[in-house]
Amino acid sequence: AQSVSQHNHHVILSEAASLELGCNYSYGGTVNLFWYVQYPGQHLQLLLKYFSGDPLVKGIKGFEAEFIKSKFSFNLRKPSVQWSDTAEYFCAVNGYSGNTPLVFGKGTRLSVIA
Amino acid sequence: NAGVTQTPKFQVLKTGQSMTLQCAQDMNHNSMYWYRQDPGMGLRLIYYSASEGTTDKGEVPNGYNVSRLNKREFSLRLESAAPSQTSVYFCASSEKREVLNYGYTFGSGTRLTVV
Asked: E strands within A1-114?
């Protein structure tokens, strides 16, 4: 069965600090990987995704993620966070065909303080 | 605006009561999903429908039933609500050809409290 582990439950950063959120997955095959963001009181929005090609993918709002196949990881990064990045971040995975439902990690809450 | 519409947005039920959460999408997507979100647990799949006329259990289906009424609508029913079903419920839709580019489209959620 697929599973996703997010290492940090709650991360607190000052504005302009760099961000890295960990995500590891377990799946016996080729995968598609996603990061979603949920701002307070809102629904999930797609931040970025990887399914093939360059393992370093760039998303919206300056976020990027790197797929490292040997480590089964897909960590999210941002060089300099802003207060508006305060949100919950979810890593998700499904099989390469895209036919299976997304499996989500438990989420990481990011709080950015001034 | 195109997207996924969920009703109601908030609901309080007494233990043992029944209710149906409604979900409709206007993007002509084939696949629809119901997830529940609980603090520290992330999103867990309850049921999904890969296409009109089919439904399958997800990770946490107990206590729920679903109906794919047509291509647009996918409802979630709680026959006898329990406090453990207090959660935020999200409906989502996707199209196989598009999911790798656009992911899932989520509704705004239904916050359900069972007392």
From this structure: 3-6, 10-14, 19-21, 23-26, 31-38, 45-50, 56-58, 64-68, 73-78, 87-95, 103-104, 108-113
Residue A4 has pLDDT above 70, yes or no: yes
Nearest CA in chain A to B49: A101
- Cα separation, A26 vs A3, in Å, equals 5
Terminal alpha carbon distance of chain B: 34
Q: Percent of chain B scored above 90 by pLDDT? A: 82
Q: What is the pLDDT of residue B91?
A: 97
Go through chain B and tell me how many residues it has.
115
Nearest residue of chain B to residue A39 (CA atoms): B108
Per-residue exposure over A75-101, b if at least 16 CB sit within 10 Å of its own CB, e if not:
bbebeebeeebbbbbbbbbbbeebebb
Residues of B in contact with A98 (CB under 8 A): 96, 99-100
Mean pLDDT computed over B3-30: 95
